[in-house]
User: Fold this.
Amino acid sequence: MSNKSSAPARGLFIAFEGGDGAGKSTQVAMAQQWLEARGSQVVTTREPGGTQISEALRSLVLEHGHGEIDSRTEALIYSAARAAHVQQLIAPALNAGSHVICDRFVDSSLAYQGMGRALGFDAVAQINDFATDGLKPDVTIILDISAADGRARRVAAGGGVEAADRLEAEPDDFHERIRNAFLELAAGDPERYLVVDATLSVAEIHAAITTYLAGLL
Ligand code: TMP
Assistant:
């Protein structure tokens, strides 16, 4: 009798992070196509979101019009959305052997709520350890952009001040804290992070990402 398990090899969990306007969505879609062209099963998803309850929480936390949302409540809503996302979608997909590409994950909470809202990395990390049951990305790709460049990109893409969601509407110094937080997280664990200059061309960024992923696969 063989002891070999028939379970598929666990997929790679890839997170994309970066400030608003960094061009993540474009790169996420290109990375998915690249992986699929190599014959991989890929599940692409986003945070907050990815499941019915998480998308409902996304609307709650991003849309204007729910009155004041204090920083702790905001952090808990993001982590609640993440708990459902991990349980219902990310962990099952990885266990079934798919690669999972996630547009934002815990590092966004560490950056936006931990540093942007000044709750601190430790408190935000704690609630997220609970939410994710300790699940971490195998690799995190950070598209690095300054607050001014990110704002200019959002405006050029038709997202002016009126179109900005609750977080995008924050001033440049908030977005500069976010950028520094991502860079600090990457510097603390260089093995698990790829930082790419988001002002490079779309093709150059994609090439940097695929070269890196090819080395992992
Ligand atoms: P998106 O525009 O990239 O879809 O992200 C939605 C917004 O939510 C963005 O401004 C970043 C913010 N955000 C947080 O503040 N904390 C989080 O944990 C996540 C996932 C997103």
